[in-house]
């Protein structure tokens, strides 16, 4: 791959301690991994290094811990899930630095694999703090980044380590960049983007540039509510970041200036509780009750989105249109996914979708294999699409 050092140029790893950044931020339901795609995608890098005699030390984050260690966000169960996917033992150390980490690493034999606890249990990780970088780096001889889906974060484990250790792109990092370049490097127009999901504050800003790259931006899921509220539509108790209304308004102005259509829900499926099979009703978007939450976009919105898909030559999609983990609030996401998959199979659409939950949603709809390309990345993929340099990718350039 041009400009990057990859596993093809890493040389002998026999007996070396290789710190491998992976994205194990996988969807979990009732304590079980509900979609293992991200683990499956990093498996080739892990097994290749292990087969070549490296001590494979996995670094990953899980969720967004607010105040240090949080048992609910421990990676320990994910070590077991990783072991099941790759079919070999994966040890676990209860901290990513300090004695727990160094003792676990000292006990490793060549070819062993150990996962260190959630890097975000240390606030210094997200600050890319040099002292923390030195502590993490002390456990490795080489660094491999296989977490394209976290490459938009300039954190110690995604960026800092590459500054202080010989650094290489893993197989998935390499494959993601090559596939995105191939599918979207010069996209056929019209390009339609669907952005939904729940990570409003971390994805809203990038829409400001995205509207200059696409012909239509369909906004669904939790993301839509902030836009609806910004234009004065009452969204009741829906997930909504009211303090970002001004940014949402600015994005709508930028879109108008760029000639990008903004497509917002015209109806919604509303419930009073965030749980499966909660009593629900479909209402016009102007009629959301004060005590109701929009948990899915409604059928009229789905029809409008599918019309846009019919007009598109290229579709990019991150973020489910509703709370797809909870029936029946998966209906819009499933219907739209099936529609895009059918157009792709018919040779009428290039469809690229990504994101931990988006991939889970496409698998739930049974159509992930019918998309042109499914990335493990959501935010990173959109930032790549936006034309931004990703810190975790840039630092790997030779
Ligand atoms: N209307 C909604 N209200 C609350 N949560 C929603 C809504 N629509 C989607 N979601 C949630 O968004 C989450 C996925 O968002 P996000 O993390 O941004 O996607 P991805 O992981 O694909 O990038 C899912 O857990 C889903 O339940
Ligand atoms: O799940 C992720 O991103 P995504 O939800 O955009 O797909 C990545 O693991 C990054 O997580 P973060 O958005 O908490 O930094």
TrEMBL record:
(2R)-3-phosphoglycerate binds at residues 38, 120, 153. It is an enzyme of class 2 (transferase). Its main location: cytoplasm. Substrate binds at residues 23-25, 38, 61-64, 120, 153. InterPro entries: Phosphoglycerate_kinase, Phosphoglycerate_kinase_CS, Phosphoglycerate_kinase_N, Phosphoglycerate_kinase_sf. Transmembrane segments: none annotated. GO terms for biological process: gluconeogenesis; glycolytic process. It is found in: Cytoplasm. Its EC number is 2.7.2.3. GO terms for cellular component: cytosol. It catalyses: (2R)-3-phosphoglycerate + ATP = (2R)-3-phospho-glyceroyl phosphate + ADP. Keywords: ATP-binding, Cytoplasm, Glycolysis, Kinase, Nucleotide-binding, Transferase. ATP binds at residues 203, 325, 355-358. GO terms for molecular function: ADP binding; ATP binding; phosphoglycerate kinase activity. Pathway: Carbohydrate degradation; glycolysis; pyruvate from D-glyceraldehyde 3-phosphate: step 2/5. Belongs to the phosphoglycerate kinase family. Monomer. PANTHER family: PHOSPHOGLYCERATE KINASE (PTHR11406), PHOSPHOGLYCERATE KINASE 1, CHLOROPLASTIC-RELATED (PTHR11406:SF23). This is Phosphoglycerate kinase. The lineage of its organism: Bacteria, Pseudomonadati, Pseudomonadota, Alphaproteobacteria, Hyphomicrobiales.
């Amino acid at each position: 791959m041009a400009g990057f050092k990859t596993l093809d140029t890493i040389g002998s790893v026999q007996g070396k301690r290789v710190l491998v950044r992976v994205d194990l931020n996988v969807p979990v339901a009732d304590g079980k991994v509900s979609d293992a795609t991200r683990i499956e995608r990093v498996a080739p890098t892990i097994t290749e290094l292990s087969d070549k005699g490296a001590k494979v030390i996995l670094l990953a984050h899980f969720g967004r811990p607010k105040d240090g260690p949080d048992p609910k966000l421990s990676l320990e169960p994910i070590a077991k899930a990783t072991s099941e996917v790759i079919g070999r033992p994966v040890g676990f150390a209860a901290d990513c630095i300090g004695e727990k980490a160094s003792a676990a690493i000292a006990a490793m034999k060549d070819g062993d694999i150990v996962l260190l606890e959630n890097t975000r249990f240390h606030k210094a990780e997200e600050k890319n703090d040099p002292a923390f970088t030195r502590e993490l780096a002390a456990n490795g001889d080489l660094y491999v980044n296989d977490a394209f889906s976290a490459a938009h974060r300039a954190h110690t484990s995604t960026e800092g380590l590459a500054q202080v250790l010989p650094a290489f792109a893993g197989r998935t990092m390499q494959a993601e960049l090559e596939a995105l370049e191939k599918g979207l490097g010069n996209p056929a127009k019209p390009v339609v983007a669907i952005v939904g999901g729940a990570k409003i504050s971390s994805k809203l800003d990038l829409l400001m540039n995205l509207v200059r790259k696409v012909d239509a931006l369909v906004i669904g899921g939790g993301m839509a509510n902030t836009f609806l509220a910004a234009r004065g539509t009452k969204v009741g108790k829906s997930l909504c970041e009211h303090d970002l209304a001004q940014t949402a308004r600015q994005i709508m102005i930028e879109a108008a200036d760029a000639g990008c259509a903004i497509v917002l829900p015209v109806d919604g499926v509303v419930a009073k509780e965030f749980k499966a099979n909660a009593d629900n009703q479909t209402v016009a978007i102007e009629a959301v009750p004060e005590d109701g939450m929009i948990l899915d976009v409604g059928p009229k919105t789905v029809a409008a989105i599918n019309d846009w898909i019919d007009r598109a030559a290229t579709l990019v999609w991150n973020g489910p249109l509703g709370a797809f983990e909870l029936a029946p609030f998966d209906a819009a996401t499933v219907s739209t996914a099936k529609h895009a998959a059918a157009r792709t199979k018919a040779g009428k659409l290039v469809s690229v979708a990504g994101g931990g939950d988006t991939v889970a949603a496409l698998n739930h709809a049974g159509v992930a294999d019918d998309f042109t390309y499914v990335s493990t990345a959501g935010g990173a993929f959109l930032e790549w699409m936006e034309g931004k340099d990703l810190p975790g990718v840039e630092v790997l350039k030779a």
